[in-house]
Amino acid sequence: MTFFKDNPVCNLFKIDFPVISGGMVWASGARLAAAVSNAGGLGLIGAGSMKPELLEEHIDKAFKATKHPFGVNIPLMIGHSKDHIDICIEKKVQVVFTAAGNPALYTQKLKDAGITVAHVVPNAKLALKAQNSGCDAVVAEGTEAGGHNGKDGLTSLVLWPSVADKVKIPLIAAGGIGTGRAMAAAFALGASGVQIGTRFAVSTESTAHQNYKDACVKADGGSVRIFNTAHMPIRALLNPYVNEYIKKECAGESIESLLSFRGKGRTKTGIFEGDIEDGEMDAGQVCELINEVLPVKEIMNRLIEQFFVAKNL
Length: 313
What we know:
Layout: H1 8-13, E1 19-21, H2 30-38, E2 43-46, H3 52-65, E3 70-75, H4 81-90, E4 95-99, H5 107-112, E5 116-121, H6 124-132, E6 137-141, E7 147-148, H7 156-164, E8 171-174, H8 180-188, E9 193-196, H9 198-201, H10 210-218, E10 224-227, E11 234-237, H11 240-250, H12 255-262, H13 266-272, H14 296-311
Parallel strand pairs: 1-9, 2-3, 3-4, 4-5, 5-6, 6-8, 8-9
Antiparallel strand pairs: 7-11, 10-11
């Protein structure tokens, strides 16, 4: 569209609309990434839940499913992150989004390989660090977002303009975005693009289990809570597991005890396998606005249509 022809995010990633899908664990596979890219945005494969060989498989599938640019989201705190970086370079992935770690670790290595790099941050100080590390764009994610959150707990309304005032590289807003109205608000607060997680997780092409998608549709904003605050804040749908975790937190149990209770594989159990009782179903507060499971193309069409309506109010 003519409106986006000079948009810095569109120009950076060579896409039609400044809309990026979040690289969500157990939901953002090749099918979802390709669907978002085919719809004019930038789809991301979520490497956080993938071993190196599985990431390779999804990258190969994405190249076959779309001729448009797509990327990979890599949480730097995971053990396979270095292998994931090397795979993206070897496979000639066009874009890499890094998160949950020091952007200085791999940014230059990726850029030397011709890869465009963005980094996810929870505050303006870390946004400046990402810019100084050579990142091409920064994603500022407010506490409304699902999954891992920054300890700052900054809401999007505060975070986005604070980052916009500090950095010169393109700002991509994230956290609580699922409609064109929210996208227009993000632009008004200084963003040039948006990253959307939960709305795309609740799509036909998402690899999340149908039970997870149905739970998100049924949820309201109060059903999505932050827990694990003393270690690493996580926003997820309330269920018996999360309720018990919060009860243990309030009782003052040690971090070691809490992490032992959480164990391993909770997100896979909840998001991918659909255990809505004992699994962890990471999701954002935008569940309040999600009323149905839709194909990515329909989500994108509605998003852009609402954006222009809101922009012209």
